[in-house]
């Protein structure tokens, strides 16, 4: 999951994952960016992040909401660290997830509805699921977008 702080001009990106392996891979791939001091990698769980309140203006995550152990706690924590009016963008490939589910290879609930309902319960606005198509990969994918509440 990546958190961005660009509206204040700092241009910082903070990535977080609970997986040691994923942090090692990200650190290797982002070595040059990490050296600038504007990109950071953290070991935080989505439901307990060490960021200050109202720090980030946008959040991007790919293929992860279905692994969160407590959806409402995770969404509450996302709301806490986002500035009012910040944007969430989540990306997934529902056809690939369906195939993994059929083969009993997934541990979480891949249905996007519980995540979207949780966003709405926590005050996020304009929660939308959109169908997209990657012309380079020749694959469909889906995005969920939401705007954090204007009041905290």
Write the element-wise H/E pattern from the N-terminal end onward: EEHHEEHEHHEE
CATH architecture: 3-Layer(aba) Sandwich
Mean pLDDT: 88
The global form is globular
Which CATH top level class fits?
Alpha Beta
Percent of residues in beta strands: 25-35%
Helix content: 25-40%
Q: How many discrete domains?
A: 1
- Under CATH, the topology is which? Rossmann fold
Rounded Rg: 16 Å
Query: How many H/I helices?
Result: 5
Largest sheet: 7 strands, mixed
User: Could you name the ranges where pLDDT drops below 50 across 5 or more consecutive residues?
Assistant: none
Model description:
- With 152 residues, the protein is an alpha/beta fold.
- The chain has one domain: Vaccinia Virus protein VP39 (Rossmann fold), CATH 3.40.50.
- The protein is built from five helices and seven strands.
- It has helices spanning 20-29, 31-35, 71-81, 94-102, 112-121; strands spanning 2-5, 12-16, 39-42, 56-62, 82-92, 125-134, 139-147.
- The chain has a seven-stranded mixed β-sheet with strand order 3-2-1-4-5-7-6.
- A hairpin with a 4-residue loop joins strand 6 (125-134) and strand 7.
- Helix 3 (71-81) packs across helix 5 (112-121).
- The radius of gyration is 16 Å and the shape is globular.
- The mean pLDDT is 88.
């Amino acid at each position: 999951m990546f958190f961005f702080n660009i509206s204040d001009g700092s241009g910082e990106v903070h990535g977080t994952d609970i997986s040691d392996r994923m942090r090692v891979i990200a650190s290797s791939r982002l070595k040059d960016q990490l050296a600038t001091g504007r990109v950071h990698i953290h070991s935080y769980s989505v439901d307990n992040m060490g960021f200050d309140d109202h720090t980030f203006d946008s959040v991007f995550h790919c293929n992860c909401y279905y692994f969160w152990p407590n959806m409402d706690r995770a969404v509450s924590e996302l709301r806490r660290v986002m500035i009012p009016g910040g944007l969430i963008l989540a990306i997934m490939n529902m056809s690939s997830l369906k195939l993994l589910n059929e083969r009993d290879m997934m541990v979480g609930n891949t249905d996007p509805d519980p995540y979207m309902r949780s966003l709405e319960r926590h005050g996020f606005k304009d929660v939308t699921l959109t169908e997209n198509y990657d012309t380079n990969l020749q694959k469909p994918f889906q995005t969920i977008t939401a705007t954090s509440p204007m009041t905290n």
